Design the sequence.
């Protein structure tokens, strides 16, 4: 893809910008509904970046599970909020300050990690092998990995999902209580 | 130019870093529980993106381990979203709101 | 069943009876069950006694090992509980169980109609069990356990009417009280106070007792005894196992406990106050159980008592005998006279015990304990009958002429009075002779100061005859002084009168001297020496002379329509006042110990405990300060844990970053 045209480069950077703008917007926009939509935009951008990384499968998963599943869940969750528009209650100033501090520190760490990574790569070990479809490539595919060396984590992930589902039901369901007890 | 294109790390790293920083900020500074949830999703995505990017650029040809880790991140995110939603529902039921500044009391 | 097993059964029947009757609310039923159980127990005790006394042996019953410390080869030892029956214990057990039975029968009538009456049987049965545990114990430890249980039993019975107010606030008491009862501190004369007083005073004695046990334990262990507290171990120690001084110390410790239990000077004031309980309870406390325990234990531990210790015993006994007899002469409460007479007679027993085994002191003292149990119990039951008949009146100045209205009571109590005064052919004469003979023999043998207890006992005995006849004459002779008090008086109901009639023969000498069984049982086959026989001869004359003199004096002074008693009281105003004021012992103890020492100590402890509340110089302040400090720390912590999720996330994020930096920065 070195020979990729300006169009492709532009598209790539558009993806990056969408991700960045979506994330910043989702984090800062006062209207909660807008924030969720912006989050969806950002997640879609990430899916695009996955495509550039030859991770078509992950991109699909990102779209289907994240944008299609998780995001919808969160959208439902906004119904709980009394103040979706964010017009009544603003975050207190000290909370924003704390957030900025934490964000600054996180930015420091991220920069540091990125620098480290870039230095290692520029020392020139490997670049992407072109023209090889990752999914059908010479190495093992994701499915083989998941059922091979990653089997135990894979099973754990399954258990995690099951437990999460049961836990969610247990949390939400109203259990019959003794008659005198107050219903929470 | 390579570094800045789709074959270089820089673009992905910048995007992931912004995702992460924005996530941290949202998780800390949002007073609405959904805002916090959004922040967490952003951070998780940053992590998944980093995994995949490093796996693609850094590792040997055809290695999809990074992607696999990304898949796991998505799984974890899904589980987290479900549990978070249930928790929000429980909080809502007891406090009739999910404003974290209002639901500070540990009442039943 | 063998005697060994039977002794255990005798010990446990009262406990079972107590457990059984404790749940029964119906008074008559509870009394009946208790009486039947105790009667069965009496029969078994008699069987045991006939066997043991007849053979003249001591029987070691089953022994339960309780505590084994260390290996025997390495100087370890064991403590346990078991029964031990010798003639002394066997006869005592019979007396305890028999009196408990009779008192229960009498009490069923006496307490009829009292809302608390159903509580009496189980307390009495438990009391009897405790006393039997002392009597049948095979070692000092078990005896001590029983000893403490006896204290508990008396505590319960003295405070039987626990809700009664202090005498100074009790209108009924004020209306009925004796005119001359001035020495009593009425503000602190209520059942609940009296039971505490008895308990605390016994604690003082028990401290000494425990010390004595400790000394015996240490000495016996040093001597290599396996079962250091058993009676045989005590005998071994006394036979040369340890030094004389240590032995004396141990004996005085045991005697200290006996002083408190048997109400000897200076720890006697609890016994007169114990009259706050029902009269039936007094009758058992004064006869068979509580006060008898002290005398019994001193006799049981006789081996420990060196000459020095015996001298102390004799002197304390003599002083108490005279002191209490003098006080009894001027009391106006009919129960108070009997209470002080008990103290005096117990003193007499200790005079006997103090004379030492060579002079036959142990046998004499114990014989007096037995006979005294009989007639004193009878006296108290008669007193109960009188109080019951006269609607709670106890004042000797108001009651009178009861012999016509209560003939059975009058005769029974006259027999008991004769016995306690030492009239010839009564049981009292038999045992009092013995005590005086032992004291005389001891004094003759030792000379000098050893005459002290004898003289005190002789004067005390003279006074005994005087105050007991004063008591009887004022109650039963002459005419009713204040007719209202005794207008409806009559003998107790048939069941209770039978009890009096059953007990009456035992005031005579014959049941005790028949075939010389008691003497043989107590002194074994030891043939009394010529000196002792001589002393006994003299003592008989002395005792008879004392009885005759005392009775005559009493008749002269206190016969109906005789003003001589009052005249004498005016002439001997100082002595009379001292006696009336109980020799100020009660007041001094109240002032110095209870108020001075006790309150001073309490104030210091209160200061240490409560402080002024603010500073942490006191326990209370320290705890409060601790609490305040923790609250402050928690308050500081709660600022961080304000429930703000954002803050938590921020802290978590910052912490993770810090860790990451630490890891990544090489």
Sequence:
């Amino acid at each position: 893809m070195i020979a990729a045209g300006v169009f492709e480069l532009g598209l790539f950077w558009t993806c990056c910008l969408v991700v960045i703008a979506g994330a910043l917007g989702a984090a800062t926009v006062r209207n909660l509904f807008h924030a969720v939509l912006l989050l969806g935009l950002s997640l879609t951008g990430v899916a695009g970046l996955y495509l550039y990384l030859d991770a078509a499968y992950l991109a699909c998963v990102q779209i289907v599970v994240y944008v299609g599943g998780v995001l919808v869940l969160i959208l439902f969750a906004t119904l709980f909020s009394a103040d979706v528009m964010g017009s009544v209650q603003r975050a207190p100033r000290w909370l924003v300050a704390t957030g900025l501090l934490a964000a600054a520190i996180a930015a420091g760490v991220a920069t540091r990690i990125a620098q480290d990574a870039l230095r290692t790569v520029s020392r020139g070990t490997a670049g992407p092998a072109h023209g090889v479809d990752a999914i059908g490539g010479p190495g093992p595919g994701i499915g083989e990995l998941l059922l091979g060396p990653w089997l135990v984590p894979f099973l754990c992930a399954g258990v995690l999902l099951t437990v999460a589902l049961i836990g969610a039901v247990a949390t939400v369901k109203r259990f019959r209580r003794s008659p005198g007890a107050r219903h929470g | 130019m390579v570094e800045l294109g789709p074959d270089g790390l820089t673009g992905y790293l910048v995007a992931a870093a912004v995702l992460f920083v924005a996530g941290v900020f949202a998780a800390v500074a949002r007073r609405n529980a959904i805002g916090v949830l959004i922040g967490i999703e952003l951070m998780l995505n940053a992590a998944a993106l980093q995994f995949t990017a490093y796996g693609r650029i850094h590792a040997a040809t055809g290695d999809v381990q990074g992607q696999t880790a990304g898949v796991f991140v998505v799984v974890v995110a899904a589980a987290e979203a479900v549990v978070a939603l249930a928790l929000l529902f429980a909080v809502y039921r007891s406090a009739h709101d999910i404003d974290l500044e209002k639901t500070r009391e540990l009442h039943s | 069943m063998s005697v060994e097993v039977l002794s255990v059964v005798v010990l446990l029947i009262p406990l079972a009876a107590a457990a059984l009757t404790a749940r029964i609310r119906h008074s008559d039923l509870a009394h009946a069950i208790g009486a039947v159980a105790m009667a069965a127990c009496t029969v078994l005790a008699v069987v045991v006694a006939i066997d043991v006394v007849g053979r003249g042996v001591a029987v070691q019953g089953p022994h339960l090992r309780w505590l084994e410390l260390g290996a025997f080869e390495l100087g370890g030892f064991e403590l346990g509980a078991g029964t031990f029956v010798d003639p002394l214990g066997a006869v005592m057990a019979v007396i305890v169980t028999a009196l408990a039975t009779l008192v229960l029968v009498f009490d069923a009538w006496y307490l009829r109609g009292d809302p608390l009456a159903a509580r009496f049987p189980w307390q009495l049965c438990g009391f009897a069990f405790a006393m039997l545990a002392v009597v049948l114990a095979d070692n000092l430890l078990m005896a001590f356990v029983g000893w403490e249980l006896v204290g508990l039993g008396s505590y319960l019975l003295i405070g039987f009417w626990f809700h009664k107010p202090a005498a100074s606030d009790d209108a009924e008491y004020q209306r009925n009280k004796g005119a001359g009862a001035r020495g009593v501190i009425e503000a602190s004369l209520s059942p609940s106070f009296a039971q505490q007083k008895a308990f605390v005073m016994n604690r003082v004695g028990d401290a000494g007792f425990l010390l004595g046990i400790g000394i015996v334990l240490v000495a016996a262990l040093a001597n290599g005894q396996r079962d250091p507290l058993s009676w045989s171990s005590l005998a071994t120690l006394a036979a040369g196992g340890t030094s004389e001084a240590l032995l004396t110390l141990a004996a005085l410790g045991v005697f200290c406990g006996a002083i408190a239990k048997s109400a000897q000077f200076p720890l006697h004031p609890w016994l007169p106050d114990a009259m706050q309980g029902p009269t039936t309870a007094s009758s058992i406390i004064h006869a068979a159980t509580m006060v008898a325990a002290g005398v019994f234990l001193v006799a049981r531990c006789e081996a420990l008592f060196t000459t020095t210790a015996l001298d102390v015993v004799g002197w304390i006994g003599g002083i108490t005998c005279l002191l209490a007899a003098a006080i009894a002469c001027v009391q106006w409460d009919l129960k108070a006279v009997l209470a002080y007479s008990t103290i005096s007679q117990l003193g007499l027993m200790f005079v006997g015990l103090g004379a030492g085994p060579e002079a036959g002191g142990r046998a004499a003292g114990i014989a007096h304990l037995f006979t005294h149990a009989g007639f004193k119990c009878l006296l108290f039951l008669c007193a109960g009958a009188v109080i019951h008949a006269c609607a709670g009146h106890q004042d000797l100045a108001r009651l009178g002429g009861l012999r016509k209205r209560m003939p059975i009571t009058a005769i029974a109590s006259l027999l008991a009075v004769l016995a306690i005064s030492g009239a010839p052919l009564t049981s009292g004469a038999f045992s009092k002779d013995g005590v005086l003979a032992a004291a005389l023999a001891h004094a003759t043998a030792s000379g000098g100061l050893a005459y002290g207890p004898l003289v005190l006992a002789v004067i005390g005995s003279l006074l005994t005859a005087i105050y007991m006849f004063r008591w009887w004459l004022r109650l039963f002779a002459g005419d009713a002084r204040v007719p209202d008090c005794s207008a409806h008086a009559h003998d107790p109901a048939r069941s209770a009168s039978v009890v009096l009639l059953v007990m009456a023969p035992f005031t005579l000498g014959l049941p005790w001297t028949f075939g010389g069984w008691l003497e043989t049982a107590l002194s074994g086959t030891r043939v009394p020496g010529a000196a002792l026989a001589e002393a006994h001869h003299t003592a008989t004359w002395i005792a008879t002379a004392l009885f005759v003199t005392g009775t005559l004096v009493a008749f002269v002074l206190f016969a109906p329509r005789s003003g001589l008693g009052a005249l004498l009281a005016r002439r001997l105003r100082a002595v009379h006042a001292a006696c009336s004021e109980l020799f100020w012992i009660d007041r001094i103890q109240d002032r110095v110990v209870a108020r001075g020492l006790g309150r001073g100590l309490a104030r210091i402890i209160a200061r240490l405990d409560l402080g002024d509340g603010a500073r942490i110089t006191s326990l209370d302040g320290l705890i409060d300060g601790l609490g305040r400090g923790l609250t402050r720390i928690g308050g500081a912590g709660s600022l961080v844990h304000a429930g703000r999720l954002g803050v938590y996330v921020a802290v978590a994020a910052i912490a993770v970053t810090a860790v990451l930096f630490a890891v990544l920065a090489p």
